[in-house]
Amino acid sequence: MNIKKVLDQSITRALQLAGASDSSAVIKQSQKAEFGQYQANGVMGAAKKLKMNPRELAAQVIEALDLPLAEKVEIAGPGFINIHLDAQAVAAALSKLHTDSMLGIEAPPRQSYVIDYSAPNLAKEMHIGHLRSTTMGDAAARILDFLGHDVTRANHVGDWGAQFGSLLAYMDQLEQSGEILSTELKDLEVFYKKASALFKSDEEFAIRARAYVVRLQSGDDRCLELWQQFISESINHCQGVYDKLNITLTRQDIKAESSYNDDLAVVVSELKDKGLLEISDGAKCVFLEEFKGKDDKPLPAIVQKSDGGYPYLASDIAALRYRSQTLNADNALYFIDARQRLHMRQLFAVSKAAGYLTQSKVFKHLPFGVILKDDGTPFKTRDGADVKLIDVIDEAIERAFRLVTSKNPDLDETIRRNISEVVGVGAIKYAELSKNRTTDYIFDWDTMLSFEGNTAPYLQYAYTRIRSIFRRAEIDSTSLDSKIVLQHPVEFALAVKLLQFPEAIDSVTDDFQANVLCNYLFEVSGQFMSFYEACPILNQDDEIKNSRLMIADITSKILKQGLELLGIQTVEKM
Predict the structure, then answer these.
(1) CA–CA gap between residue 181 and residue 178 (Å, rounded)
(2) Between the chain's N and C termini, which has fewer beta carbons within 10 Å?
(3) By the 8 A CB rule, do 274 and 355 touch?
(4) Of 126, 108, 104, 105, nearest in space to 117 by CA
(5) Cα–Cα distance, 351 to 315 (Å, whole number)
(6) What is the largest CA-CA distance in the chain?
């Protein structure tokens, strides 16, 4: 049950019965959360329209209100309505969560989503810059899956373009000299640097590399064979990162840039037929009034270059066209760097002008900031290179192992290794997801791996502590079937917070800010610790003990499910 939604609907209906037919309530939780108090705003605005005294209208609303969830409803200030929740009604609603796999969430109308995320360039290994898109997109996919939507994960990897000419020329050169390619390709970053260096220093090699681009785009068998070998090795690298980072992307989710190659000429032709194309310096462009430069002249959206090649915009339009028309997606979410805002605005604008994107479809760019070092500079190595994502994951796991060992040195090493993988990976992902999506943030090892504060280790440890209650008491939580009784204010506060899980998920899906869910889980953990300190569990009579065990079990379920939606695992012992 979504308390906020129930209250909002009830107050809105009462407003309508009182004559304010076009008004709605705005429900906010009171700062006095321990008393289960909410406040309804909106009466004053409705009273102004009706030319009524706000308190008089509030009185009529209360008289028309049918709200069993409330113990007391009263007028406050100039016309606010304060709603005090009834402890028995809250307890009854909480009891239902114990056997509810959705934990109070009502499935919304089913829609189809395409989520564009991760999308590494296959010319190089994945680096720290890919962390944000990958973790945020995967959390969105998990949440939408959980809500019952049809979700298509779209990994729009870069596997086509000029840089592949250098790579193919270098591969051919190595094979001609008898080198074993698989050995060379083990470190894609080194391989890429060698090919790039040759392109810059050897003019004969550069000429061959440019020729390879043309041959590749023309479908030359030899080029395609080399290209496929390189792409296969690159995808193996990416999949290794995804598996270690607990990301749900698989090889089947790859819809690469090259897969739209045959559609590019079709897109250009369709844009021409719709009268959208203009020639500018030999390039085929779309000029739209909403995009202007400093000189107030329209900016070109280039869909085909003067040399006949196609820029990223062309393949992105082809991808959008496929998602909208072939997949017939209701929604598409693009988790792409904030620095691509202009590109994304042009993509959507050109696609709307071409008729590929209609009013009934919601295609949305979800931009994000960059990851910084503690000195405020971009997170790179000392020589300025991008930090490999796999190296970051490995270091997090190793640091977590040292922490787990210091806390529980007697634990079997294999168990400590398993725990450290869960904690280390969770720490990286939570540090990312707990920040506002649109802002830059500082990558700090000590903070993210701390067992105190709003971190993954803190939440994972909170979950483990709750489960330890049942181990100590030798009680199977699945066998609990007791009536929940709320006696203590702290107990009541935790119950209300647990019932707000659907509100947290609703808030996340408004704009896919995962930090809303992170903050909620952190608040749940804090409320539980207050409850645990104020409300003894195991030394109570059976009625209270079983009631509080039910509350503890529901808390652990919400923590576990919430973390799973973020792509973060839990362990039973730590």
Answers:
(1) 9
(2) N
(3) yes
(4) 126
(5) 12
(6) 91
* CA-closest candidate to residue 474, choices 558, 528, 412, 549: 549
Q: How far apart are CA 124 and CA 192, in angstroms?
A: 6
* Residues 423 and 460 sit within 8 Å (Cβ to Cβ): yes
Gyration radius of the chain's alpha carbons = 28
- Taking the C-alpha atoms of residue 162 and residue 33, their distance in angstroms, rounded to an integer, is 59
3-state secondary structure 212-249: HHHHHHCCCHHHHHHHHHHHHHHHHHHHHHHHHCCCCC
Strands 112-116 and 150-154: parallel
Superfamily (CATH) of domain 112-158+258-365: HUPs (3.40.50.620)
> If you average pLDDT over every residue of the chain, what do you get?
92
What tokens does 404 get?
């787990």
CATH number at 3-85: 3.30.1360.70
Count Cβ atoms below 10 Å from residue 76 Cβ, excluding itself. Answer: 14
395-565 belongs to CATH 1.10.730.10: yes
Give alpha helix (H) positions in 85-129: 87-97
* Total-model pTM: 0.93
Q: What is the pLDDT of residues 427-486, one digit of tens each?
A: 999 999 999 999 999 999 999 999 999 999 999 999 999 999 999 999 999 999 889 999
Cβ within 8 Å of residue 235, ≥6 positions away: 122, 157, 251, 254
Quick: pLDDT tens for 282-328.
999 999 989 988 788 889 999 998 988 888 999 999 999 999 999 99
Q: For residue 409, give the 3-state DSSP assignment.
A: coil
DSSP 158: B
Give the span between the Cα atoms of 367 and 344, in whole angstroms.
Answer: 10
Contacts of 409 (CB under 8 A, 6+ apart): none
Whether the Cβ atoms of residue 563 and residue 459 lie closer than 8 Å to each other: yes
Q: Domain ranges for the chain, please list them.
A: 3-85, 112-158+258-365, 163-236, 395-565
